[in-house]
Amino acid sequence: MVALLTQLLPSPLSFTKPITISVTLPDALAGAAQAGQEAAPAKVVQQRVDFPMRPPILTSITDGTSNTTMVTFRGRAEPDVTLDLILTDANGAESSFQVPVNSLGRFNLPVTLGPGPYGYTLGWYGCLTCTVTAAATGAGEGDATGYLVVDTTLPWNPLSLSFVDASGRVVRPAGNSGRLDADGWQATLNASQSYTVWLQAAGCTAVEVSTDGGQTVALSPAQLDGENGVAGQIATAASGSQSVQLKGTCGGNPVDLGSGTLVMRASEGIMTDASTGAALASATVSALVANANAESGAGGDVYTLWSAADYGQSNPQSTGSDGKFGFYPPAGTYQLSAVRSGYQPYRSPDLPLAGGFLGYAIGLTPATGEAADHVIQITESGFVPGVLSASTGDVIEFVNVDTGEHIVRSNTAGVMAAAAGQWDSGLLQTGERYTVVVTGEGTVSFADAAQPQFSGAIVVSAAAPTLYLPTVMR
Fold first, then answer.
1. Which of 43, 69, 454, 465 is least surrounded by CB atoms within 10 angstroms?
2. Identical topology for domains 57-150 and 271-364
3. Domain spans of the chain?
4. Which residues are registered as beta bridge partners of 262?
5. Residues 125-157 pLDDT 10s
6. In angstroms, how far is the first alpha carbon of the chain from the final one?
7. Considering the domain 374-461 in this protein, what is its CATH number?
8. Contact at 8 Å (CB) between 428 and 378?
9. pTM above 0.70?
């Protein structure tokens, strides 16, 4: 008798935890025993399996300066494991904390720190990465690391500074080095929109924010994610950049709290009807994040829904009447998936992000609901056929018969698809299909955006007129 054990696992990572599986095999000769033969005893088989573990992700800490001695390390990791938090002070002294992760994959550890700078590393308990090679070299590739400064002389907490849009999406600024300190920070925001500025300034009796556009707003008590602070609304500029100054009355004296710059985003996420260019409401957009191997180019295509709730955001999102959407995730590699009734689904190519705004201009192609008049196969060596003759109004179907992913795009007018005459299938995986309707005479060229060396053309002629013959009755 052969026992086959199967377990669906994510793409292999360099973080593993050993698990021993014990299996009691039933009597392999039970049938033979009934025929008068002696049955073999039951047998216990044990096998060690190294289960891949995703690296921990911090959602509440940004490298920078805090004026409070209580710092909370909050984030996500593999469920029901223990993490190791190591803090190193300016003298090189290390403090270690065990961080339990609950069954939902979340952890929350408040730590009291004295004034001064601290480096931190958060990894798997015992050896940071739970692999012998990585343990020998210290912190592993997936450990969360950073550098904090606790300065209790500051009247406000720079790490608390946040900009919140009308949909509740939170943008946390950072400086050129990725840190958030009192000065030199920068945030990329949508142009000509209202944002709520929120921060914690327990040492001040009054706080105001002003911009170079002439705005001065007094901040009033408000909460963000259950924490107390002060907040007020400002309007962003129509383009370019905008200087922001924070001031307060702290200890009875006027204090310059710090300054930074708002950069207006040049593009934004928007969903349109690919045939008309009109904004599409009620489309569902999901942000998918790549695992560690996909980000390093070693693992392939394992993408999961990004946990936006940990960052005070929603995922998926539904577009409004203006067709706009957008996410503010941490650094990583992402894809966007979009669906809407009456349209073909869409999945973007990889979108590497260093942090900040995640958006994309997506034109959804209407679903035809008609059988294809012609089929073009996408193979590992290109399009088959490479040149196709068709008539106006014909439905052309592209089918990916390769094991790799492909993207069919055209920037030629006369095709019912993307705005400004361009159509875009998005990523097509093995067996997936994409259809377009050719509407005008001429030659329509297209290419594979994933492998640009592959291209093709559709030669479109006027449809032959239908000839009706009279019926002769005898």
1. 465
2. yes
3. 16-52, 57-150, 157-264, 271-364, 374-461
4. 187, 242
5. 654 444 333 333 333 444 568 889 999 999 999
6. 79
7. 2.60.40.420
8. yes
9. no
